């Protein structure tokens, strides 16, 4: 589904250079649930951003369904992200002044599309928030905030969810719940790639991708 070939990424800060990814070959298969683990600074977030076309590699290639996105314009990459990818981050990035329902609908509102009420209600139900749709984020628990963010990530019917430490700000009970929701979505066909420091959760993934010093460990 998504393939990385010899991907390298170097960041430059003044005179300093950081080799964040050093020749990553990786294939994400359609329908799998993969956990990305590794020490802080290993390159996990960089990898996720490149898989999600939020960032481009310095060298190497990213292929979606066999097609390289090398040289694509920002406009084309934005469309690819919108059509195929849902993002979930450690910080939930909800809009404080909007209800849960409107936060879920946000990707549609941004594009001046009128959200379908039934669809938003269905998404809220999928993450167990059917009784919270009128609440504002401040009235939610952390776990509920992340469930709102997951529903928002699903609004465009993505093929894959890319989650960067989605349980990083949650206690173990809420972490389990988020993981179970992602597992359930995966069972219904969604591909999931999730960065996590939580070894218990990683162990429950189909596959663990270990990153160290900018490389995938064999
Ligand atoms: P991880 O997610 O495993 O903690 P990251 O991908 O965030 O690792 O970072 C990998 C390396 O790249 C780290 O050394 C980090 O400091 C560096 N890095 C990440 N983003 C930037 C950036 N925008 N500018 C400079 N260096 C960065
Ligand atoms: P971390 O992994 O360091 O805890 P996050 O996972 O919350 O941080 O976010 C990773 C990076 O992605 C941040 O630099 C953030 O600015 C960026 N980011 C968050 N949401 C989006 C988005 N919707 N589109 C593009 N970049 C985003």
TrEMBL record:
GO terms for molecular function: ATP binding; ATP hydrolysis activity; transmembrane transporter activity. This is ABC transporter ATP-binding protein. Belongs to the ABC transporter superfamily. Macrolide exporter (TC 3.A.1.122) family. GO terms for cellular component: membrane protein complex; plasma membrane. Keywords: ATP-binding, Nucleotide-binding, Transport. Signal peptide: none annotated. It comes from Desulfatitalea alkaliphila. The keyword Transport applies. Transmembrane segments: none annotated. Residues 2-218 form the ABC transporter domain.
